[in-house]
Structure formats: C-alpha cells, structure tokens
Amino acid sequence: MTTKEILYKQNIILYKQDELKKMKRADLVEILAKYSSRPGRMKKDILIDEIIKHQEHLEDLKSKLVIDNAIEKYHRGTVEYRLPTLIINRIIRDLWHDDITFNTNTNQLHLNYRWLLSIALVSKELFKLISSLFTRFIVISDFHTILPATVKQQLKNSVINPLSVLKNISHLTMSMNIFMEITNNRTTTTHCTPVELGLIFRSVRKLRLVSYMDVTLSMHYCIFITEYMPNLESLALDQIKIDNSKVFPMLQQSLPRLTSLNISYVRFDKLSTIDISSNTIRKLKLPLLYYKDWRITGQSIQLETLSLMSMGALQIPMISDQLNEISATINMSTKSTSIKRIIFHHVTNISNYNSTKKIDKATGYAHIKSKHRPLTSICNYLGISMGPTVSYAKKIYEVSNNFDHNKAVESSYPNLNMIYQIVRISNSIFILICYLFKERSRIAREQEQQQQQQQQQQQQQQQQQQQQQQIQQEQEQQQQQQQQQQQQQQQQQIQQEQQQQKTVSQKLGLLLFLFLKLILTLSL
C-alpha cells in the first residue's frame, strides 16, 4: 500500500472552525477520539483547538508526502538514455534480488544495502524505485544503548520525511520495548497519530518481535497488530512470554492472511491448553513441548512446513498421544500429504547427520540448504558468531521397503544430499523424522500384508475357477465321446442291417433261380 493510499484511506472529515463551534461537547469528544487523543476534562474551546491542530497536521502530511513532495516531481516522459528506463529498473531489481534475497548470511546485508542505497542519490526516479525496494527494516534497541522513545521519534521522523527511502516496510524486525513504546503512546512529545501509525505498519507482511527482558504479549498488543497490520502473513515471537490462551485464536481469526507462525522461543506461563489449530497456517515452528494438551492438528489443517525445537526421546511418546486426530500415532508427516518440508536445528555441520555407510533406512528427505542465525546483535558487536544453524529438509520421494527401489530413485538425484535415519542424533528434530518413518514402514508392511492376502485370495479363486472350467471341459469331452460312440454303434447297426438285407436278397435270388431252373427242367 502506497503512502498516498494510506493517507487518503483515513476517511477523516475536515471541519471548519464555525462548524465546530456549533457542535455540542459530546460530538467534539467523539471527533477527537478518532485522532486517538484523550480529551479528558478539556473545555469546548480547547477541544476545538485540538481538532483543528490534528486536521492541520493531517493536511501537512498530505502536502509534504503527496501534493508538494519534490521527490515525486520528475520527468516521466521519454528520455534519451543509452538504455531505456524500464531496462535500467529491471537490472537494479535483479541485482537487489540477488544480493538481498539469496543472501543467507545476515551479517553481510548491511554491506549490500550500502551500494544499493547510494543509487537513490542519482535521480528522483531511481530514488522512488529504491524506496519501493527498501522493504526490510530492523530496529532493535535496549536501555543500555539508546532509549526506546528516541528510536520511536527517529522512526516517526524517517517515515514522514519525503527525503527518506523508508516508505514501504514489509519485513519488520523490532524489539518489544520499542513496539510497546509505539503502541502505548504515553509521551506527548513522541505521540504517533493513527495516520502516522498507518504509514509505519500498514504495509507490514512479516513481523518479528524480539525481547531481551521478561515481556508478556498481552491482548492490547494483539489488538494493535490486527488493527494496523491487516495484511500480516508471517509472525515470529522471540523470547516473549504468553500467559493468555486467547492470543492465538484471536490473531488467527482477525488475520486471514496469516500463514506462518514461529513460536520456537516463546515461553508459556500458567497455560494448560494451547490451541494453534487453524486452516490458514501453512508453516508452523513450535518450541519444546512441555504441556499435555496441545491442539495443533485437525481435519482441516494443511501444514506444509513443520519445525520442532530440539526434540528428545521423552517428548516423542507425548506427541504421539497428542496428535491423534490424523491417525492413532504421530502421522502428521507419515500420512499427511501436505507436509513437504521439515526444519531442524543443530550446531554442528549437516554432514554429521548423514551416514557414510548408509546402512539405515532412507527417509525420502534431502538437505537443501542451511542458514546461520546469530542469536543477538551483541554477539556481532563482540565479534562472536554464536547461534544455531537452521537446516531445511525437503521431501523428494515416497520411501518403500524395497532397498533397490529407493536406491534407484536416489540415483536420479545425484546432486542432492539425501538424509538417512540416524538414531544417534538425540538432541535434534531428526529423531522425530526417524520415528515418523518407522511408523510409515510399519504401516507400509501392514498394507503390503493385506495386499498379499488379497492377492492370495484372488489366486485361490482363480485356481478354483480354473479347476471348475477343467471339470466342465472334461465332462463335455466325455459327453462328446459318448455321442461319438453312440453314432458309431448306430452306424454299425445300420451296416449290419444292410448286410443282412443283402444276404437275404441274395439267398432269395438264388432260390428263385433254382426254382426257375427246376420249372424249365420239368417242362422239358
């Protein structure tokens, strides 16, 4: 959302001083409440002055950032460059994407940002381009370095300054004390109006809140997030305490675009039930599961990425009993077709997780990348590179019990580092993968046994049918033989009768001849 859209979306009616004088005090209090200002026991004249002051501030922001913004006034027609402007912008965008998006080492980002931000000084058009690309912003402070109120004022001045590239924050990492200072608005000197809060937070899609103190995420801060960050897609809470079970349901209901939730380092106090079941969450990172009632999965859940922090052997049976809505065991990954990626955390290199002999069963997952995540900025200040290495394993193929088949499939991916089940990894999420695929192999064996039994039954039925067909054929052959024998007997009888008739006729002829001869002899 652009600055112009945010400013003109407020729908605030501007009143003249004569119109305000004709209104009642209750109406003036209601108008002033829209500017998030507390009227208290102000008199009517003071209320009118405060309303006019807020209206003048809004008009001043519109004039400074939109109407009379000198940065926006540049020639947009055809300019005789050696390269067209669109091609120049495309080159800068590609370089920005390569140096920022594909950079897995966060410590290198400030060096890459330096030369990219220097391009903004070339022309107003390139300044506007860099402003649209400069979307990641990290502001972390503690009370030892700089006060949160000072950081709040600097952030406010930077956003409303036309000469600042910080206009479209989509990825925001902020320490919790600064976030509390901005949302509470206790001080009048650094007070942020709703318009200014909208300019800061309205475009945020990924939010990460970090705390170095014992800070609780109350419902007040959740309401602020849902009100000023309606387009939030990813939420990460680092070292923050939660003591209200309604936090996650409220966030998931009020933020329909929220698809990623990272609570790996969240501390839960005084909670016996934690409900994170949502049909919009696709990427879920969970902490150590110390609780007996976790509602994570359901029939409508379509997780694609699952991360569990430092799973141990004691937690696996507990999860097996809790995640029983997909099947009787932890079949979130074994039977769910939606989970395609698993994230596991470790300190050593990924090569320690792969068996050189490859004697264990295949998992079907391959290690695709690793990222080093520094713990705090203090470690960077001290020159110490501390923090876990986050590894990403992606599902490549479905594993079968046939070793040769798995080997043939893996041979078609020669450049991938396939992962095998290693039981000796006791402090990693990879134990969970081993457990999952043991369950998968057990289910596969049962299915194969059922298929074999069905095949045997089918074969027996086929054999019985063949035997019946053979018996029928034999009976038909016997009937045919009997018919042939009967026909032969009939033919023999006919032949015998014919022969008898011939012999009789011959004898009659002979007798007739003798009789005639006798008559002739007597006549002579």
Automatic annotation (TrEMBL):
Coiled coil (UniProt feature): 438-507
Superkingdom assignment: Eukaryota
Annotated InterPro entries: LRR_dom_sf
Keyword list, A-Z: Coiled coil
Protein name: Uncharacterized protein
Lineage, opening ranks: Eukaryota, Amoebozoa, Evosea, Eumycetozoa, Dictyostelia
